[in-house]
Structures are given as C-alpha cells and as structure tokens.
Give the backbone structure.
Amino acid sequence: MVAAACAAIAIAIGIVISYLIHWFPVQASTQAKNTDRLYHVLVIASIPIFVLVVSVILYSVWQFRMRPGEELKDGPPIHGNTRLEVFWTAIPTVLLLGLVGYSFVVLKENEQGRPAKEVQIQATGEQFAWSYTYPPSVTGGAPLKSDQLYVPLDQSVYFNIRAKDVIHAFWIPAFRLQEDAVPGITTHWRVTPTRLGTYPVVCNLLCGLGHSLMRSKVHVVTQQQFHSWVAGQMSASAGGAASSTGSSG
Ligand SMILES: [Cu+2]
C-alpha cells in the first residue's frame, strides 16, 4: 500500500517534470505539433515503467542483500514461473504495439499528400552549404536558384532533397523534420509552416571539416510576401543576366 502510494507520487512528479522542462525549440509547423504530442505520449507511457523497474531493482537490492554470515550461501534454486513470464511478455508487447501504431499514424499524417496547390522547393546540400531551387511552378518562369530559403505560411511545402558530393541531412528543428540528402537519389519531406519567423536550417550528418558551419535559415513569411520575394529575386536575376550580357557584348 505504502509502495503503491510512493510509486504514484514518483510517477506524478516525473510527469510534471516532463511537462515543466521545455525540451524543444518553438513549434513552427503542423508536423511539429504532431511530433511533440507523440513525444509527450511516449514520455507519459515511459515514466510509470521507469518507476516500476527502478522500484523493483531498489527493493530487490535492499530485501535480498547479503547479511553477515551468508557469504557462502547460494540463492534458492528457482526454475521459471510461467504465469509471470506470460505477463511480462504480454504487457510490453501490447504497450509497444500501441506506441508503434500511434507513431505510424503520426508519421503517416505528417507525410500526407496535400491539395494540388503545393509549393515545391529543391534543397541541395554540398560541402558546406545549402542551396535552394524554386521550380517554374513557383516562379512562373525559369527555375530560381538561391542560397536563401523562403516558405509561405499555412501552405503545404514539398521539399525535394538532394546532395552533390557526400551524404548530408536537411534538418529544420522548428519544423521537427529531418531527412538525409544522399548523392544520386532524391528524398523528400513535406511541411506546413504555421508560425511567421526565421528559424535555423542545420546539416545533421557529419559531412566533413566544415560540417558545423553548414547552417542556413528558413524564413516563414506570408503567402503575399513569399510571392513578392520570388518575383523580386526573378527580376534581380533577370537584371543581372541582362547586365552581364551587356558588359560581355
Ligand atoms: Cu553536414
């Protein structure tokens, strides 16, 4: 009875602490909210098990400790306990299947296809920088290459992720999304930004000496600002191209 009360108190304290500590950066996407909810469910499911396991260990260490004069004694010869073994196999199985199932649902939801009006952006990793290509479906003209990442608020963005040299990982912590950038193949992730602001883009796979400098920023702006930024970049690159042809001719 006392043990059960202590366990309940320990579980409650654990859950409160898990909520009080801010583990993560701000949530800036729909996917971030789903992922954080999953994380909290996993923590809340893990705390009672942690308390149970640690309690059994501490109890056993104290209760079955060697007392003076018992140095040469051996433990009682016990062989198996079918009922106990069925329990400690069945309960973790059910629990794990439940949590794996829920994780699967969250991942599926995060990757779900969106309506046709989706912005496509190609992110390319190379030693040691990220660059971005906005395709004709976004620019309405030629593809736009830039070292800056702008994404529109409340609109689904689909990233095609590539690498030129070695394996990198395209990670935006505020979106809670990460995928490897692998030479020779294109990987993807999909995000719906939900918070205006500027957030770090990080390469999260050791890719060489400059790896720690391989950082960039994502600007989440309104849809109107996004389109005017793209238009501005397009006219700037058109102007640049025109002047360079002018000077060479
Ligand atoms: Cu890297």
